[in-house]
Each structure stands twice: as structure tokens, then as C-alpha cells.
Amino acid sequence: MWSKVIRRIVVIVIVFSPLGAAVLPRYLPAEQQNNLQRDNLIEQYFHLGLQHWEILAFLLLQHGIRLGIRQLKRILSRRGLTRRNNTSDVQDILHAIETELKGSGGIIGYRAMHQRLVNHHNLVIDKETVRTILRIVDPVGVENRSKHRLKRRQYRSKGPNYIWHMDGYDKLKPFGFCIHGCIDGYSQRIVWLEVGVTNNDPDVTAGYFLDAIRSVGGVPRILRADNGTENVHIAAFQRFFRREAVDAFAGEKSFIYGRSFSNQRIEAWWGQLRRGGMDWWITFFKDLRDNGLFCDDNIFHVESIRFCFMFIIQEELNKAAKLWNLHRIRTSTNPESPPGRPDMLYFLPEISNTQDYKTVVTVDDVELVEETCGLQNVQLPCSPEFISLAEIIMRENGLMMPSNANDAKALYIELLDTIKEVEDNL
């Protein structure tokens, strides 16, 4: 079996042209290929939870390193990297699970928890053990969680970068946090997932789009979004970059407006995001509001909450995107939705007998668009004036920027108390 896989990969390299100038995400070792030795690459891919054939595929197609399955197994064995007989220490596993349960991990199922343990904590553990431990340490949470599945029409996309779907997510908007995301239709890979003070400003969303173009080296054949003013710049940019294409979706046809609930791929993923941890944050901020600690009519409350929590939420989104892009999509009855990991399906389309459909865009083209439109893609968590005020308060009180929700809450309360004290003394 493995010899067939290796032969297939070799044939792929010979027959297909190399991948375009896509910049891989930082968590993939391929992005660091100039700084890592072969065995270090293998170890990093192993800790991402990739199977042997997936490691071999990335080594060959992204690094030009040819290995046989036996040689790979020897290297893994020499480094003590096995999953069957090398389970991590139980105390380390318990500590990691307890840490996750204190945050957004408290609402996810055992499969998602297993992926967090592997990808975030570099632990070696099987799903069944995670399920058993969760039943012991979090029986109430296990009981409360339930599966919700929707029957949807079959989705069709020919390959990576054939169509992107983008939309805003407003569940945290009442608390000052506006999320915007984009997903590749074929691979279901998250292209971007960002939080800011707004997702309705066309300059902001256009900044996300242009950053993605720099990252992947081009634009999709089709871009789909709802009919909102926040998309006017993106629509113009997409059509400009596709103006010289000769396919059926060239120029004006390369951007499709549609109602939000009809944008199937991204709408379905928002449900995944909520189940994967965002619901915990919604409850967290509602508790702040219900306890009288947050009022959206109070400018200091809004500025303070953004200052304290914006970067933590962005880190949460980064982790959510990474977990999703590395998780394994199960086999579906729909042949147009292939099984596999989104990152594998996206960056190695040859494995699935398809191709990359992006239209290549140079960095010069992107910079030309930015200069012509005068875009300033610098988004602060709050106003510069409040940032200066908060930094003064933190410096005088010996406070540090928070790294988790509880520390952020403590800083938030400290800022509000200090500001109120100053107001009372005026």
C-alpha cells in the first residue's frame, strides 16, 4: 500500500507543475523550510497530527525531500515519536484538559478536545482516552453537549481557489468585537479569520482580502459575499485582478453577490466556530453585562473591553482556524466535498487529482491597488487616545497585558476603577 502511495506522489511531482507562490501558514513547517533540517521538519509535522503518508507528501511536494515509509518510521522511532506505544504522561494530559476546560474548551466535544491536545499541547493520546477522561473530569459538560446536524444541499467546487466564501460574524458585536472570515469552497480551508472594531468598513475588509492575496499568491476564480457596503472595495479588486482572465468567470463575473444565508460554506462554518469555543465567549461577555460590568452606552467600557480582550480573541480565532485546517474531514456522500485535511486539500491539490484554480497576482499589483485607493490597513483595538491612557494606568500600577480571559477581566476592572476614581476627583 505504502509503495503505491509513494509512487503516486513521485508521479504527481513529475507530471504536475510545482505549486504557485503561496505562503504557507506559520504553523506548517514548510513555511520555515530554510531554517529546519529534515528530521526537525518530520518532528514538527508529526506533532501537527499528520499521518505517515501526509508527512511524506509535504516533504516531497513542499521540500523536495524523498523518503520511503520505512526510512520515515526509522527516523520517527529514533526520535521517540510514536503514537501507539508512547502515550503522554497522564498528569500532563489531565493538566492540559483542565486548562482547556477553564476556557472555550469547556463547550467542545471529545474529538475537538483531542485535536487541541495534539496541536496545542503536543501530547500523544488517542480519542477514546480523551472521551473517557472527559466523562470523569467533566461529566456535566459531557451530558450537556449534544450534536446538531443539518441536512444541506450538495455543494460543488472544482478545486482549491475555485471559489471563496466570505462573511461577517456578529455574535460578539454587542460587546465591541466584529469578526470577519473567508473559507475556500473546495478544501474548506479557512483563508482568513480576523476580529476588529468593525466588519462593515470596506477599507477593513479589503485589508483582509489583500493580506490573503499576499499569502496565497493570487485570487480565487470566484469570490462570493453578501450584498453589503463592506464588500464594495473587495468586489472591485477581485474584478480588477481577474480582468484579463479568459474563463467563464472573468472580470465582472468573478464576484458574486448573494444573500447571507445562501452563502452556504461560510454560514455552515460559523456554526462550527460557535460550537468550537465562541459560545463560551458569548456567555462570558453576557455575564459581564448582566453583572453590571459592561454597558455598550459607556465609551470607557467599550474602549476598555476592546483594549483588554481584542488580542486574546484574535489568538483564539487563530487557534480555531489552525485546528480546523488541520482536522480531518470525513468521507461524504457528496463527491464534490472530498475527505481529508483542509490544509492538505488546499496546498497539495494533486493528491486529490485536481488543480489550483487561483489567478496569480503579484505583490506589485497588490501595492498598486493599495496606493490607488489609499488604504491604511492598520487596525487598532481601540482609539489611540485610550491606548495611551491605558498604558499610563498600567505603567503606574505595574500591570501587564493579559494572556487569558481571567487576566483580561482583572485588567478590565482595574482600568474602569482607575478611570472612575479620576472622574470622581475632577
Automatic annotation (TrEMBL):
<dbReference type="InterPro" id="IPR001584">
    <property type="entry name" value="Integrase_cat-core"/>
</dbReference>
<dbReference type="InterPro" id="IPR036397">
    <property type="entry name" value="RNaseH_sf"/>
</dbReference>
<dbReference type="GO" id="GO:0003676">
    <property type="term" value="F:nucleic acid binding"/>
</dbReference>
<dbReference type="Pfam" id="PF24764">
    <property type="entry name" value="rva_4"/>
</dbReference>
<feature type="domain" description="Integrase catalytic">
    <location>
        <begin position="156"/>
        <end position="247"/>
    </location>
</feature>
<dbReference type="InterPro" id="IPR012337">
    <property type="entry name" value="RNaseH-like_sf"/>
</dbReference>
<dbReference type="GO" id="GO:0015074">
    <property type="term" value="P:DNA integration"/>
</dbReference>
<dbReference type="InterPro" id="IPR058913">
    <property type="entry name" value="Integrase_dom_put"/>
</dbReference>
<protein>
    <recommendedName>
        <fullName>Integrase catalytic domain-containing protein</fullName>
    </recommendedName>
</protein>
